[in-house]
Amino acid sequence: MREPPYPTELKPYGRALVDLARRREDILCLSGDLTRQCEVDLFQEQIPERFVHGGMAEANMMGLAGAFARCGHIPFVHTFGVFATRRPFDQIANAIAYPNLPVRIMGFMPGVSTPGGPSHQAIDDMALMRALPNMTVIDVADAVEVRQVVEAIVDVPGPVYVRLKRGEIPVLFDDDHVLNLTRADVLQGGTDVALVATGMMLAPVLAAARVLGEHGVSVAVVNVPVVKPLDAATICGVVAGTRAVITAENHSIIGGLGSAVAEAISEAGLGRPLRRVGLQDTFAEGSLDGPYLFEKYGLSTQELIRTAWSVLGRPGDPPRAPAVPVERGEYSPV
């Protein structure tokens, strides 16, 4: 793992998709009128014969994707997460998930990683996609996993939904890290509290674990790139060895990672206090300042530290997280 402040990488997804498509003739790229914003302008420029512009008609685009999949193609469909899930939900259910077709739905700018306000913030996309039979749901944590996710999902049976931040992506893992779609990653062991993260929340979880460790708290950290099907065995194994568990997601606490972990540990009979860090059943406002939104809606490193301190019943005020400078351009506007 790299030390903060983390380096960043620009457009890792767009380059990875082009690289794979050059080796796989069955891949098609569909865009919902957000071609540059979803990094597939590279695909449009370099492989235009397999690029389909769906326009601002996401429901129709999902129907097209299902039809292409029936003809033997593997369509990768691109738009912002809220337009990839909430708006065309019925078409995804009936034209993609029910027939169990190999459509890859790439939802950019999840949660409060977009400044566009409630109309653009996909805070319920994991909940919606988790509810669909046959759907795999993935939330990658950094640029290394973004580069690897394209090849990792191309031959997964049935449909896949992937959450992706666009623009400059933090690099948390070393280059030898391998994205595993069958097993959650236990990044460090601990006996006091388990911090279970997905997607963009892994960076603040790692920072919180570092501060807590410096103040005598033994912290286990689990990275969960695949929220469905959840690797319940690994997560429950870690939780069983701790006193409490905290989930962290850039999503509503209802229906996403927190709900999935709650279901898993309850069914396993593990009596551990659970706290869910995420959006607390609320819509978020718009802002060009990403750290402001993460702080306001309780997705910050400091909130994770406070939550751990509280659930463990530690006396006094929780330790303070060090300020981490945000690089210029790191929070890409629409």
Which key features would you list for this structure?
single chain; 334 residues; alpha/beta; five-stranded mixed beta sheet; 12 helices; 14 strands
Characterise this structure:
There is one protein chain. This protein has twelve helices and 14 strands. The chain is an alpha/beta fold and 334 residues long. Helix 1 runs parallel beside helix 7 (143-153), helix 3 runs parallel beside helix 5 and helix 8 crosses helix 12. The radius of gyration is 19 Å and the shape is globular.
- Total number of strands: 14
Distance between the termini: 30 Å
Q: Which overall shape is indicated by the principal axes computed on the Cα atoms?
A: globular
Number of helical stretches of at least 4 residues: 12
What percentage of residues falls in helices of 4 or more residues? 25-40%
What is the average per-residue confidence, as pLDDT, rounded to a whole number? 94
Secondary-structure-based class equals alpha/beta
| Helix-strand pattern | EHEHEHEHHEHEHEEEEHEEHEHEHH
Largest sheet: number of strands, sense, barrel closure: 7 strands, mixed
Biggest sheet, spatial arrangement of strands: 3-2-4-5-7-6-12
**Spans of at least 5 consecutive residues with low confidence:** 330-334
